[in-house]
Amino acid sequence: MGSSVVTSIAIPTYAALREHLGLPRREIRVLETVQQIAAVDEDVLDILGVDVIPVFANPPAGYRPVFVDEGGRGDSFKDEFGATLRRPRGGFYYDWQECPLSEPSTEALTKMPWPDPADPVRYRGLRKQVEQLRARTDRALLGMAPCGHDLFNQILRVRGMENGLMDVVAEPDFVEAFFDRLMETICTAQTLFLKEVDDLIDVHFAADDLAGQNGPLISPSLYRRMIKPRQARIMATIKSHTKAPVFYHSCGAVGEFLDDLVEIGVDILNPVQVSAKGMDTAQLKKRYGRRLSFWGGGCDTQHVLTRGTPAEVRQEVCRRIRDLAPGGGFVFNPVHNIQPRVPPQNIVAMFAAAREYGRYR
Fold first, then answer.
1. Which residues lie below 8 Å from residue 170, measured CB to CB, with a gap of 6+?
2. Burial level of 147, CB count in 10 A (0-12/13-18/19+)?
3. For every one of its 361 residues, what pLDDT tens digit does the chain have, with 9 covering 90 and above?
4. For the chain, what are the domain ranges?
5. Going by CATH, does the domain composed of 11-63+103-357 fall within 3.20.20.210?
6. What is the DSSP pairing of strand 95-98 with strand 140-144?
């Protein structure tokens, strides 16, 4: 919990958990703005037995999110690509609302704001920071390079979900030009980040959501033509600079893509969304257990952790450990971030069950 931007806990839930654990109140640090998730403090990591912590690059010199109070509409800010994200009053997350690419043209792409992966401020002092972190903890370090990780998701953010999905089919030349520029940005950021910390980290992060609850968001054939070759280039860049295994995040029913992901060099699958179609943990372990490690799937956050009793949470944890742990290759983690309104009693029950049942005899 807290090891990455897809394995943490919502800020209000974290505040309730600290109170439930009898820990003193303190200002909660934001791990990631869009999802409003918390940076987990060491006292909580110790109590719950958490083994992994994140390593991030520094913020860039030329960009800081400026939050604008929009009154009854909530508040908003612009990301590094120039998109406006808005959190409605009383809402839990920021959503992409106003997209910087109004049309799928080369001219619009040229004018769009773009993050600078080579900004030296991102990496200044990074190695020393991580060396100090390495010296004071025996927890595993998970590296997260700057400038994003997603190809497919990012076209949906800069064009909007509907336009982006249409463009992949109707405007392939534009989309591939966008993907190529983004791929080069990601590869540069990965290279510069790993040159600083490659021998200090234990696991390295990559991501691109390819599926929804009931199946792929993009056809496998389109994925293999437009996205997979560029993902392969990104994976090759990462693996040329570190021996750390690659952690790959994609929500949803990703079963149709797993052979492709293994082929391009993915070592670890996250979040193993057990409530999505075709994501049966016993079958996933049987089919991919020799080729993939599973980081997630430890408890269904969509239903059980949110709505179940502590006894039902324990039962769920035992089931997932039984499915995923034999022979190794399983890092216990609930599915994705722990969401708002999850009872703290359920979180404690989940980690207690993992400690009790998640040991090799």
1. none
2. buried
3. 999 999 999 999 999 999 999 999 999 999 999 999 999 999 999 999 999 999 999 999 989 999 999 887 789 999 999 999 999 988 999 999 999 999 999 899 999 999 999 999 999 999 999 999 999 999 999 999 999 889 999 999 999 999 999 999 999 999 999 999 999 999 999 999 999 999 999 999 999 999 999 999 999 999 999 999 999 999 999 999 999 999 999 999 999 999 999 999 999 999 999 999 999 999 999 999 999 999 999 999 999 999 999 999 999 999 999 999 999 999 999 999 999 999 999 999 999 999 999 988 7
4. 11-63+103-357
5. yes
6. unpaired
